[in-house]
Structures are given as structure tokens and as C-alpha cells.
Amino acid sequence: MVITFVVFTQFVYGQMSNYKSLYIYNFIKRIEWPAVQTDEAFHIVIYGDRGTYESISKIADSKLAGDRPIEVEYIDDVEDILTADLIYVDFSKRKYIPKINSWIKNRPILLVSDYKNAKLTDINLIETSDGLEFVIRPELIRDKNLKLSDMLVQLAKTDNENR
Fold first, then answer.
1. Using one digit for the tens of pLDDT, what is the confidence trace for 45-91?
2. CATH at 84
């Protein structure tokens, strides 16, 4: 019975990493970044979640961010962030969100986390009994000169609904 529980837990955890990766990729598709040189890759930085890193890397192998190739980087230390278009911070690294946010300032870098109580992130992924949901902060995203699709805002929960 213990072995069954461990196998099931690993399966569910692996699936959640896949779901998070799909959400992240769909955020990229529904948010418009300022124009850049087309040969410049779209940089995703994953901090603290190897499973999501591996899942989003698989997506990046076959998909584009608009017309840009996607590069995914896993970091072990917040000081390793050199460039990014999107940064995903795992719950286990939540204490570094303020530092990352201050590094981003108002640059066009989307900050995503699975820490549901993070107030400094642009999007929070939230695990529920029904699966995965997300809270979006349109005002933070627009302050970074990123353009949101109306569909993304409609699909999200607002900060007020999450309280």
C-alpha cells in the first residue's frame, strides 16, 4: 500500500508540473511583449522546480513564443538571473520573490509563482481540488508594458476572488 501511495504521489506531482508548464506556455501566447529583434530567443527562467523546468523544456523544443524560439534555464540561485522574459518561482523559493521583483522593477518580465499568497507576482498558479487555477494582476502586468488578452483576464480569478 505504501508503494502504491508513493507511485501515485509521483504521478500526480509529475502531472502537476506538466499542467504548470502548459499554463506558462499559454500565458506566453496570450500576453504580448514589446517588440524585439526576431532572432532573439524568448527566455524563461525556472527557479526551484525541476519538474516544471523539464516539462517546459519539452514544450520549448517544439513551440515558439510568437516567432521567437524559446530558451529555458533552471537556476539554483536568484543571483543567477541574467536575462528573462518570464520568471517562474516555485513555492519552495517564495522568500526570494521580493528580491526578484525588485530586480525586475518595471521591465517587461512576467513574474509567475505557485505561491498563492504572493502579492508581488503578476500571476499565481493555485492548486485546487479541481486542478489548477490562476490569479492574475492585470495592473502589475500593464505597468510593465505587457499587453494582456481579454480572454486571459476573463479566465483568471481576480485577487479579490482569492481572498
1. 999 999 999 999 999 999 999 999 999 999 999 999 999 999 999 99
2. 3.40.50
pLDDT at 9: 38
- Flag whether 150 is in a domain: yes
pLDDT at 128: 87
Within-domain flag for 160: no
Within a domain: 65: yes
What is the 3 state secondary structure string of the chain? CHHHHHHHHHHHHHHHHHHHHHHHHHHHHHEECCCCCCCCCEEEEEECCHHHHHHHHHHHHHCEECCEEEEEEEECCHHHCCCCCEEEECHHHHHHHHHHHHHHCCCCCEEEECCCCCCCCCEEEEEECCEEEEEECHHHHHHCCCEECHHHHHHCECCCCCC
